[in-house]
Write a structure and sequence with these properties.
InterPro entries: NAD(P)-bd_dom_sf, SDR_fam
Keywords: Oxidoreductase
CATH topology: Rossmann fold
Shape: globular
CATH class: Alpha Beta
Largest sheet: 8 strands, mixed
Protein name: NAD-P-binding protein
Structural class: alpha/beta
Number of domains: 1
CATH architecture: 3-Layer(aba) Sandwich
Pfam families: adh_short
Number of strands: 10
Radius of gyration: 18 Å
Organism: Mycena rosella
Strand content: 5-15%
Oligomer: single chain
Length: 322
């Protein structure tokens, strides 16, 4: 069915097409601030899903997102969850809250990401981007996995989706030594972002392998989109230097990037979360609403590296996962 979708498809179109798959499902989406991919994803599925759990680390922004969703879709069942992926203690607290819910989780969408930023350490001593984009989601997914596995039935396999990026190819792979021992002297903000997104893809493929059919896991490239991510003051300097945005913070249309609208950007997330034609493509990477494993950089398609990253991540966040 997804073959009829592509670059210009919107999340709304795809949610409408897969309404029967979304209906009755409980979906948890991380990072759902207004004007972001997570919010748009929540917005288009809220009219069908049984429950949409939205997350954020900022209470006020989370309230704004919840209010906007309820105003547009009064019938929607929206549940906010405070989740700061840069804090392992907060991740554990949020996961405990999820595990106390009466519902299982049919789809977990790991969407939240740090802004591209100058070198900084989290309270746990990890580099901000790799912590927020990889280690935090790794721990969170591990801890709520019982809720995800509980959604499995004879007719339904739960899904875990990682929103990665085509920029994973801008590095030579995840530097495991730097993940464990961050180094301010060698730090480059865009390289850290690329490494974090590489880690998302590696984690999705390894999760798919380890779950052995009990969970379907996918990663994806949403495309180049002007969101609150590109508007972040910290990220602006790096994006400007890379020629991705212009001085006024707008998309650089002269850059060799096919820009998408926010609804177009969220479309591949909906496909990854609900398209039944992906059932026999477990672990795959998607671009423009379709499987696109050929565009995964070699360093991110290495099963040995995926296993090493998994083992190190388990040790760093102190969790055993599948």
């Amino acid at each position: 069915m997804s073959t009829s979708f592509g670059f210009t498809s919107t999340a709304e179109e795809i949610a409408t097409a897969f309404a029967d798959e979304i209906r009755g499902k409980n979906v948890l989406i991380t990072g759902t601030s207004l004007n972001g991919l997570g919010f748009e994803t929540a917005r288009v599925i809220a009219k069908y899903a049984a429950l949409v759990i939205i997350t954020g680390y900022n209470t006020e922004r989370l309230k704004l997102a919840e209010a906007a969703l309820k105003q547009e879709i009064p019938s929607a069942n929206i549940r906010p969850l405070i989740l700061n992926l840069a804090s392992l203690a907060n991740v554990r607290a949020a996961a405990a809250e999820v595990n106390a819910y009466p519902e299982s989780i049919d789809v977990l969408i790991n969407n939240a990401a740090s802004s591209i930023c100058a070198f900084k350490l989290t309270q746990d001593g990890f580099e901000q981007q790799l912590a927020t984009d990889h280690l935090g989601p790794f721990l969170f997914t591990a801890l709520v996995l019982p809720k995800v596995l509980a959604a499995q039935s004879a007719t339904h396999t739960p899904r875990v989706v990682y929103v990665a990026s085509g920029s994973h190819a801008w590095c030579d792979g995840v530097d495991l030594a730097v993940l464990e021992r961050p180094d301010a002297a060698t730090y480059k903000a865009m390289t850290a972002y690329a490494q974090a997104k590489s880690a998302n893809i590696l984690t999705a493929s390894e999760l798919a392998r380890r779950a052995a059919g009990r969970i379907h896991a996918y990663s994806l490239r949403p495309g180049a989109i002007a969101t609150n991510f590109t508007e972040n003051p910290e990220a602006r300097e790096e994006l400007l230097a890379a020629g991705i945005i212009t001085e006024d913070g707008k998309p650089n249309l002269k850059a060799n990037l096919p820009w998408k609208t926010l609804p177009q950007g969220a479309s591949t997330i909906i496909v990854a979360a609900f398209d039944p034609s992906l059932n026999d493509k477990n672990g795959c990477y998607l671009t423009d609403c379709a499987e696109d494993n050929k565009s995964v950089a070699p360093h991110t398609a290495d099963p040995v590296m995926a296993e090493k990253l998994w083992a190190l991540s388990e040790r760093l966040v102190d969790v055993k996962f599948l």
